[in-house]
Amino acid sequence: MPQTEQTYTYRNGRKVALDKSSDQFVVRATPERLEEEGIENAELVSSASSRVTTPADDLEPMMSAARDVAPTHHAYYDAETGQEFLITDRVIVTFKLPPTAEELDAFAGKYALIKQAAYGDREFLFQLTDHTGTNPVKLVVHLMENEPTVELADHDLNHRMSSYVFTSPSDPAFDREWHLHERFVHGDFDPRSSSRCEAAWQALQNFGGADVVVGITDDGCKLNHRDFDSPGKFAAWGYFRGQRLIANADVDADPNQMYKSGSNHGTSCAGVIAGESDAVLTVGAAPGC
Fold first, then answer.
1. Sign of the alpha-carbon torsion through 19, 22, 27, 33
2. How far apart are CA 5 and CA 137, in angstroms?
3. Which residues, 6+ apart, have CB-to-CB distance to 68 below 8 Å?
4. Is 166 in contact with 201 (CB distance < 8 Å)?
5. Chain-centre distance of CA 41, in angstroms?
6. Three-class DSSP category at 98
7. Are 173 and 284 in contact (CB under 8 A)?
8. pLDDT at residue 155 is higher than 80
9. pLDDT of residue 175 exceeding 80
10. Which of 4, 69, 180, 192 has the maximal Cβ count within 10 Å?
11. Torsion angle (degrees, nearest 10) of CA 102, 106, 112, 118
């Protein structure tokens, strides 16, 4: 088994120990593009990046050649779980306070970064450049430990989709749910109005994951509805009693108060979003969430 060198970085504010592979690296290019440049044994790990495996003695020369093609970094793995930790040339920075335009420019200039996107008034996506002078792993550590203006610094990782055994929904109303597929035939239905969720499920080979939580603010929800009755379907719930917000963890919380007769909009929205694929009634756009 190839030897690894251990280092660390941060993920979601938590220190993470990493093993640096001695025979793999990641390039922001497709295997086809790399093959044109004579770089073989590349495996696609995202829509735009590849992981290359090479003999350990050839690692540095191959990485140097790959850098002439596209941004290139060592391949890392989570030392505790063994899961891939495949970095890109981008980092996500959340500031403690919203920076002014001048402060943001000064920060980008200090670390030779290019601002790629803003996710609010405090959170920004930056791309490293050749003048940054350090790799993304070390930059995240430096920002977390030494930059007083930064609340969180994190990696924009390459993620690979997982596939599972997939079976189309058999819920009685599914064939009539025209917004999820294009198989419904009716004079009042234009197939272009479909969200094509069924095609997305087939591409992913799953209905979404329970680690994805969708928040809804509405007129309540019938928690015991048959389309939501799998264990742990609701990550949390709450309602107002006067001016007080009652959360499900509160000792006096009553799940029956989440629904009042005639107030059905919230229940309908929850069903459209995540109604279960369980051969009962309807199906939501993301049944597994």
1. negative
2. 13
3. 37
4. yes
5. 27
6. coil
7. no
8. yes
9. yes
10. 180
11. -40
What's at 276, amino acid-wise? E
Which SS3 state, helix, strand or coil, does residue 51 take? strand
Using DSSP, state whether 1 is helix, strand or coil.
coil
Can you read off the two tokens belonging to residue 161? 């989709």
Region class of 89: left (phi > 0), else alpha (psi between -120 and 50), else beta = alpha
Cβ neighbors of 211 (< 8 A, separation 6 or more) are none
Cβ atoms 248, 236 nearer than 8 A: yes
Q: Is 104 helix (H, G, I), strand (E, B) or coil?
A: helix
Q: Which two tokens stand for residue 141?
A: 């550590």
Indicate yes or no: pTM above 0.85.
Answer: no
pLDDT at 3 over 60: no
Contact in structure between 182 and 48 (CB atoms under 8 Å): no
CB proximity list for 69: less than 8 A, separation 6 or greater: 27, 29, 33, 34, 37, 39
Distance CA 3, CA 21 (A): 7
Q: Are strands 42-44 and 50-53 parallel, antiparallel or unpaired?
A: antiparallel
State both tokens at 258. 């989440």
Contact in structure between 257 and 239 (CB atoms under 8 Å):
yes
Distance separating alpha carbons of residues 273 and 281, to the nearest angstrom: 14
CA distance linking residue 160 with residue 194, whole number of Å: 27
Burial class (CB in 10 A: 0-12, 13-18, 19+), 69: middle
Q: Which two tokens stand for residue 200?
A: 């997305």
Query: How many CA atoms does the CB half-sphere of 289 hold within 13 Å?
Result: 16
**Burial per residue of 241-257, b for 16 or more beta-carbon CB atoms within 10 angstroms, e otherwise:** eeeeebeeeeeeeeeeb
Torsion angle (degrees, nearest 10) of CA 51, 54, 58, 60: 20
Residue 126: other Cβ atoms inside 10 A = 26
Decide if pLDDT at 1 tops 60.
Answer: no
